[in-house]
Design a protein that fits this description.
CATH architecture: 3-Layer(aba) Sandwich
Mean pLDDT: 93
CATH superfamily: Thiolase/Chalcone synthase
Structural class: alpha/beta
Shape: globular
Strand content: 15-25%
Order of helices and strands: EHEEHEHHHEHEHEHEHEHEHHEEEEE
Number of domains: 1
CATH class: Alpha Beta
Strand order of the largest sheet: 5-4-6-7-1-8-15-14-9-10-12
Largest sheet: 11 strands, mixed
Length: 394
Amino acid sequence: MSDEVVITGMGIVSPIGNGEAAFWDSLSAGRSAAAVVDGLDTSDLTRRIACQVREPIDVGRPMGRASAMAVTAARDAVASAGIDTTAIDPGRCTVLVGTTMGETEFIEAELGCADEDWLSADHMKRIAQGRPGCIAEAVRSDLALRGSSVDLYGACAAGNMAIAKARRMLLDDHCDVALVGGADGFSRLAFLGFMRLRVMAAERCRPFDRDRDGLFVGEGSVMFVLERQSTAKARGATVRACVAGASITSENYHPTRPHPEGDGLARAVREALCEADLKPSDIDYVCAHGTGTPQNDAIEVKVMQSVFPDGVSFSSVKALTGHTMGAAAAVEAACCVLSLEHQKLVPTWFLENLLESCSLDALRDGVRSTRVRHVVNNSAGFGGYNASVVLSAA
């Protein structure tokens, strides 16, 4: 390709800290956000722990929690990219936000209300405010842009799907700037749903550990500024990383379980590598989906061993951040960008007894300083959604 897509800005709202410095510091120190759930009575539940954003989020006007976090992250991304939104064609700037749940609080807040309040005029108005598309629209409105705005519902692969879609739009000259990432607020529906599926950890999330017992539900938003390298160079922007390749695949296998051989994820990784014109041996690190659930982790190890027969280093950050739903892949892409910049890899914290079937280099016991040129960010979700993104050092 004659022009590359690059990342020039990044904004982070996460359970382990808002902003790049706090986020990276927590990843490096192994500080988990796991704590007793705030905003949900768990006294009669079998699970009580989640990873929530504890810092106040105030964007100056009423909106849903996912939207507020996305707006906050987008403002920081634009500022870090050094873009003056008044100096660019607002119609050539697109907003893509991957999400799993969208805005659910408009419905969840009324679940225990009296019958006369259910679907009242005020309730219906608030439901309409949380309609599909409202998160990306909140970002577009806040930044006074006029390009397209879309919420991508791709389950837990949504963040990577948004990056992949934005990359293609830029390469096809459908836009000049893309504000892209993922966002999900804490959802009682998700918490109770994962608990009923029996895939939630009791006390600690331990991806790829033989004794893992599940995930923690999280929340957050990470937004990136993507543009073509020629555009970034023309305005003198600092390139944070290159989005060298990306792929989205799907499996027609099961509503909640991945294919036993990880067919869709394996195809996504291979296709992303092909787009990036890289060999498996070129990859220095895989930021794994790594939920901490028994089935998913075992299948992901099988996929990585198949795609990287000569081995590769890998880890999961969900041990600290929890599973931030549609924001997860974007949160992990932020980890990848910072790993490329710092030339350091963060481990899977709390990993003690590695899966016996795994022959790969599972990062653990602290941050590793090493050469990091190309990384793969993997994501998978319910419904057979899979998306992989290859990021390269600037």
